[in-house]
Amino acid sequence: MLTLKQEKKRFREFLEALSDSYELIAPVKRELVKFDAIKNINDIHFEKNSYFPVKEFFFKKREVLFTFNGNRILEPKFENKERVFFGIRKCDLNAIKHQDIVFMQGANDPYYIAERERSFLLGYHCNEAPSEYCFCGSLELEDYFDMMFYDKGDHMLVEIGSEKGMALYKKFSGFFEKSTRLIAQHEKKIPGADRLKVKDIGPLYDNPDWKKGVDICLSCGACTALCPTCYCFDIHDEVKMSNPGSGERVREWSSCQLPEFSRVAGNHVFRNEREQRFKHRIYHQLDYFKEKYGIQMCVGCGRCIEGCPTRIDFVQIINEMKEGEKR
Ligand code: SF4
Ligand code: SF4
User: Fold this and answer.
1) Does the C-beta of 301 come closer than 6 Å to ligand 2?
2) Residue 164: CB partners within 8 Å, gap ≥ 6?
3) Helix count (H) and strand count (E) of the chain?
4) Percent of the chain scoring above 70 in pLDDT
5) Whose CA is closest to atom 5 on ligand 1?
6) 237 and 249 Cβ atoms separated by less than 8 Å
7) By alpha-carbon position, which residue is closest to atom 8 of ligand 1?
8) How high is the pLDDT of residue 34?
9) How far is CA 245 from CA 43, 66, 68, 76, in A?
10) I need a labelling partner for 110 at 20 to 30 A (CA). Which of 103, 132, 142, 175 fits?
């Protein structure tokens, strides 16, 4: 992998040059930290990871799939203006990888693909865990970026991870120096982020300790909305009252934590019990997705714990389970 070096002054100038040429999107601190368009690079927030995941820029909260009027269907025009994301952490880069598996390799979803293709992903390495809830180090995360920036105090080391990253580097090569120094694997590890001690939760499904979470879960769905990998959605038609033959077909985020999500015709709800829904989320993240795609879906960002109104820490619950114990 090509490694580059950048003095801090040049790094700043590079960000300014990027924002002159592209829409630059990076974490900013408002009430909470979130990804947003950058007008002034002094607004970029480096300390904490974004409270909200970057997924809403690719898999949108609300997407109009097409509009209709009688038999006429009008598909939306896709935006193709290139944009650059800076400051995506390793967990969220891997979350994008997992959504790429679902929406690009699995479903070939044109809405998602259009947003991904026009985006450059520039990562920012965590020198330490940015939150007490992080556990990315317990999962098998990979390098998945166009460029990755490692803050080394007075300079940045930068890795190029894709053809898109190489094209961007070539365009802005004056801001970088070549480096012979490679980033060692131990430098890519994030200290203090390996608190999930159990790798295989399959045998724990009937453990009575799940109750610690189930009993205080409100089925609110905040965990899935904040999760960078969750991809459940609902599709419905919104018609105009003045002309019921016309309207929009809309895709919106949904959540496996809501009973409505598995309600079918005849009013049967497949996961009516809160316990079924609670365990489904954790097992999809750590078990079912791996069974299907060979990789755990969860990337250990900890957002679902930090943002849960009753602070259910499923990592702690799992760590404290005594193997073999059943109801
Ligand atoms: S955020 Fe917490 S309370 Fe709400 S559904 Fe998720 S686990 Fe349950
Ligand atoms: S399940 Fe929780 S910790 Fe895992 S990726 Fe989703 S929000 Fe992050």
Assistant:
1) yes
2) 120, 146
3) 11, 14
4) 98
5) 219
6) yes
7) 217
8) 97
9) 46, 14, 8, 18
10) 142
Write the pLDDT tens digit of every residue in 154-213: 999 999 999 999 999 999 999 999 999 889 999 999 988 999 999 899 999 999 999 999
Pocket test for ligand 2, best of 55, 299, 311, 315 (most atoms within 8 A of CB): 299
Q: Which residue's CA lies nearest to atom 4 of ligand 2?
A: 298
Q: Are residues 165 and 217 in the same domain?
A: no
Q: Is residue 76 included in any domain, yes or no? A: yes
Q: Which of 124, 159, 188 is the last residue of a domain?
A: 188
Tell me the two tokens of residue 256.
Answer: 């496996």
For residue 298 and ligand 2, the question of a CB distance below 6 A is answered with yes
The encoded tokens of residue 164 equal 């898109």
> What are the structure tokens assigned to 320, written together?
């404290």
- Predicted confidence at residue 149, as pLDDT, reads 98
Q: How far is the CA of 271 from the centre of ligand 1 (A)?
A: 15
**pTM exceeds 0.70 for this model:** yes
Amino acid making up residue 248: E
The answer, yes or no, to whether any atom of ligand 2 lies below 6 A from the CB of 303, is: yes
Residue type, 102: V
